[in-house]
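It would be a great kindness if you could assist me with a short task in structural biology. Thank you for your consideration; the sequence and its tokens are set out here.
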Amino acid sequence: MSVEGKAAKAMSRKVLLIGHCGADASYLRIAVRAAIPEAQVLAADEPAEVQKAVADGVDLVLVNRELGYGFESDSGVELIVSLHATHPELKMILVSNYADAQAAAVAAGALPGFGKRELGSKRVVELLRGSAQA
């Protein structure tokens, strides 16, 4: 890929936040921008928004462990299962401090994730940067 092509791809990176409260979404936006300064960060808090964002194309999805609002289930892992079934190429990460939830998410098709307590760490920067690569 040419330098121009790589630059264009980098400029088009989109990261979708699903099910995060306002404060957590703000912290996650900061973390994403620290790792991928050129990324566009979107948020979705209901199934129709998720489907539209995924259909429009996103490079990475950060799913909260607990969902609220209009989702059929309050489980982020169940959402990962559902999205992986219809979009197996979609890169997803569960945001949770619980090891059992992380293991379930990876078993469901997600990439290894991180907890909110880790935000700002070098590990999270590396995970985000590596996960959003083409």
The beta strands are 14-18, 40-44, 60-64, 92-95, 111-114.
